[in-house]
Design goal:
Number of domains: 2
Distance between the termini: 20 Å
CATH architecture of the largest domain: Sandwich
Largest sheet: 8 strands, antiparallel
Mean pLDDT: 92
CATH superfamily of the largest domain: Jelly Rolls
Shape: globular
Order of helices and strands: EHEHHHEEHEEHHEEEEEHEEHEEEEEE
CATH class of the largest domain: Mainly Beta
Length: 365
C-alpha cells in the first residue's frame, strides 16, 4: 500500500519513483508574497514587514510555502516558486529532496504544514476547524486543521483573541445562536484574552475562536482550508460557505462545546521563554503541538546551528546570513520568508536577527 494522500486515498507509487532517486540538493529559496483576497480586511502590516505596498484592503493573509488551496479552489493559495512551478508540483516530483525520507514515509509527498502571516484589520468571525477524524469522514481529507499563533505585533488600545467557550454550552443553544446570527452571544461566550507580541496560542481542532482587530501573527496549521463559520453574517454572502456544504447539523459535530475557562494556561503562553544568554532557539509549542507542527523562535547574536528539515523561516527583524552544509549561502533580512528544503542539510545562521522557524510535524519514531 502506498503512503496516505492527505486529500483522501493513497499515492499510487510506481516501481521507480523520484523519491527513490539519489537525493538532489536544493538550496533555500526566498519567497514572494502570496496573498489571496479574503472576506475580511487586513494586510497593512504584512506589507510594512515586507517593505512593499499593500495591494488591496482585503489581503490579510500571506500563505507561505503553501501546497494547500482555498476551499473549493483549484490553485488559489498555492505557492509559486521563482522558476514558475507550483511548490506542490515540485514536492510531488521529488519529495525526498524537499521533505526527507522519514517525513515521506509518514506523510507522503506533502509537507503537512501551512504557514501564514495573518494581519487582522478587523475582528474575524467566530469559527472553528475539524479534527483529522472529522475531516476524513466528511471531507475525504486526512488532515483536519489544528493551528497555532505566534503573536508578532499588535495595534490599537486593546488587542485581543477570543478562544474556547468559557463554560460548557449545549448544542441547541449554539444552534440557536447560529440561526439568529447572534454575534454578541457567540463572542460573549468565548474567553477573551488580551495578547502582546511574543505571546503564543495553541488552537486544537474544534476550539471556537476569533482573532481580534489589531493582532498580527505567524500562524502554523495543518494544510487545509476546512472550517465551520458560526458567525457568517457580515462576513460571507450566505451560510453555504459557512458550513462548507455539510449543513449545520452535521458541521456542528466538529465543534468543541466544553468550557475552557480554567484551562487557558494550557494553550496560551506569555512572551515565550528566552534561553539564559539571550541567543539561540526556543521551542514555542512543545510536545502537544509536535504531532501537527513545530516552531522555534531564533534569536541570533552569534552563529546558531539548525538541523536539516523542510522549514519556513520568517525573518522579523535584523539581518544575517544562512550557510548550508553543502556550501550554499543566503543573505537574510527583515520581512523575508524563506523556504528551506530538507536536502539543503544542516545550516548555520549568523548575524543579528530574530526569526520564527516553522517546521512540519515530527514523524513518529
Amino acid at each position: 500500500m502506498g503512503a496516505v494522500d492527505p486529500q483522501g486515498g493513497v499515492f499510487r507509487a510506481s516501481p521507480f519513483h523520484l523519491w527513490d532517486a539519489p537525493n538532489v540538493k536544493i538550496e533555500p529559496i526566498v519567497l514572494s508574497a502570496n496573498q489571496p483576497e479574503r472576506f475580511y480586511r487586513g494586510g497593512e502590516r504584512i506589507a510594512e514587514l515586507r517593505g512593499e505596498k499593500q495591494s488591496s484592503p482585503y489581503v490579510p493573509e500571506d500563505w507561505v510555502g503553501s501546497t494547500a488551496t482555498l476551499f473549493g479552489h483549484e490553485n488559489t493559495g498555492l505557492t509559486r516558486l521563482p522558476d514558475g512551478r507550483w511548490l506542490r508540483d515540485a514536492v510531488t516530483e521529488d519529495p525526498q529532496a524537499w521533505l526527507g525520507s522519514p517525513h515521506v514515509a509518514a506523510y507522503g509527498a506533502d509537507p503537512a504544514l501551512l504557514v501564514k502571516l495573518l494581519d487582522a484589520g478587523q475582528r474575524l468571525p467566530v469559527h472553528c476547524h475539524p479534527s483529522d477524524a472529522f475531516a476524513l469522514r466528511h471531507h475525504g481529507s486526512h488532515f483536519g486543521k489544528t493551528e497555532a499563533w505566534v503573536v508578532i505585533g499588535t495595534s490599537g488600545a486593546d488587542p485581543r483573541v477570543h478562544i474556547g467557550f468559557a463554560d460548557d454550552v449545549d448544542e441547541p443553544v449554539v444552534a440557536g445562536w447560529i440561526a439568529e446570527q447572534d454575534s454578541d452571544a457567540m463572542l460573549g461566550a468565548l474567553n477573551s484574552v488580551r495578547v502582546n507580541a511574543g505571546d503564543t496560542v495553541f488552537v486544537p481542532a474544534g476550539l471556537p475562536h476569533a482573532i481580534g482587530a489589531g493582532v498580527f501573527i505567524v500562524e502554523l496549521q495543518q494544510p487545509t482550508d476546512l472550517a465551520l463559520t458560526l458567525e457568517w453574517q457580515g462576513f460571507l454572502p450566505d451560510d453555504t460557505g459557512a458550513h462548507q456544504g455539510l449543513g449545520y447539523p452535521t458541521a456542528l459535530g466538529c465543534l468543541d462545546r466544553t468550557g475552557w475557562r480554567d484551562r487557558l494556561d494550557t494553550i496560551v503562553t506569555r512572551g515565550g521563554t528566552a534561553d539564559p544568554d539571550g541567543t539561540g532557539s526556543v521551542d514555542l509549542f512543545g510536545d502537544t503541538a509536535a504531532p501537527f507542527f513545530r516552531a522555534e523562535r531564533l534569536r541570533v547574536r552569534r552563529a546558531v546551528a539548525v538541523d536539516a528539515s523542510f522549514a519556513v523561516l520568517v525573518v522579523l527583524e535584523g539581518a544575517g546570513r544562512m550557510s548550508t552544509a553543502f556550501g550554499g549561502s543566503l543573505d537574510l533580512a527583515r520581512g523575508q520568508t524563506v523556504l528551506v528544503p530538507h536536502s539543503a542539510g544542516a545550516a548555520t545562521i549568523a548575524g543579528e536577527l530574530t526569526a520564527i522557524r516553522c517546521l512540519p510535524p515530527m514523524p513518529a519514531a
